[in-house]
Amino acid sequence: MLKPEHRLSKTRDFNLLMKHSRWVNGRFIDVKVVNLAQIQPYFPKKEDLDKFKNQLRLAITVGLKVSKSAVKRNRSRRKVSEVLRLLVKDGRLKTGHYLLFVAKKDILIKNYAEISEEVTLLLNKGKLFNTSPPLSS
Questions:
Q1: What is the pLDDT of residue 133?
Q2: How far apart are CA 96 and CA 6, in angstroms?
Q3: Is the distance from CB of 12 to CB of 44 less than 8 angstroms?
Q4: What does each C-alpha distance from 93 to 17, 26, 89 come to in angstroms?
Q5: Three-state SS string across the chain, please?
Q6: With contact defined as beta carbons under 8 Å apart, do 84 and 2 qualify?
Q7: What is the distance between the alpha carbons of residues 75 and 109, in angstroms, rounded to a whole number?
Q8: Paired strand residues for 100
Q9: Which fold has domain 4-125?
Q10: Alpha-carbon distance 52 to 40, whole Å?
Q11: What CA–CA distance (Å, rounded) separates 121 from 27?
């Protein structure tokens, strides 16, 4: 499960994502990406600008069109979430972005390795991987 500081949860953040983002499309997952540095005029007024600009928040949706069964939708969501959790933990993702992962119907027949490969491919397409190694503490 993603840590709370990496989860996209506020309505205003989803509104920013929906209004100012671009799509990166894959075979069975699409990603909606917004670069926070490019939308500074739309930042919330009461936020620290530097802190807000450097955050990384993620959300995953698997709609009813994918499957009517909540068990199947949640299993797909957990697989994508685990891939993202490991990427965030390793510091491989760039900060300063909001990402919304939208699953398509074909995700139900994919295993973890195929989902991991697809997510990596989409993040490469969107240029969302860090080029510099993460700082060790």
A1: 57
A2: 11
A3: yes
A4: 18, 18, 9
A5: CCCHHHECCCHHHHHHHHHHCEEEECCCEEEEEEEHHHHHHHCCCCCCHHHHHCCEEEEEECCCCCCCCHHHHHHHHHHHHHHHHHHHHCCCECCCEEEEEEECHHHHHCCHHHHHHHHHHHHHHCCCECCCCCCCC
A6: yes
A7: 11
A8: 32, 59
A9: Ribosomal Protein S5; domain 2 (3.30.230)
A10: 9
A11: 10
CA 23 to chain centre: 12
Q: Which two tokens stand for residue 50?
A: 């530097």
d(CA 112, CA 82): 9
Distances (CA, A) of 1 to 36, 59, 79, 87: 24, 11, 10, 12
pLDDT along the chain (137 residues), means of 10: 91 91 95 90 76 90 96 96 95 93 96 96 92 58
Instruction: Please calculate the CA angle 103-106-111 and round it to the nearest 5 degrees.
Output: 90
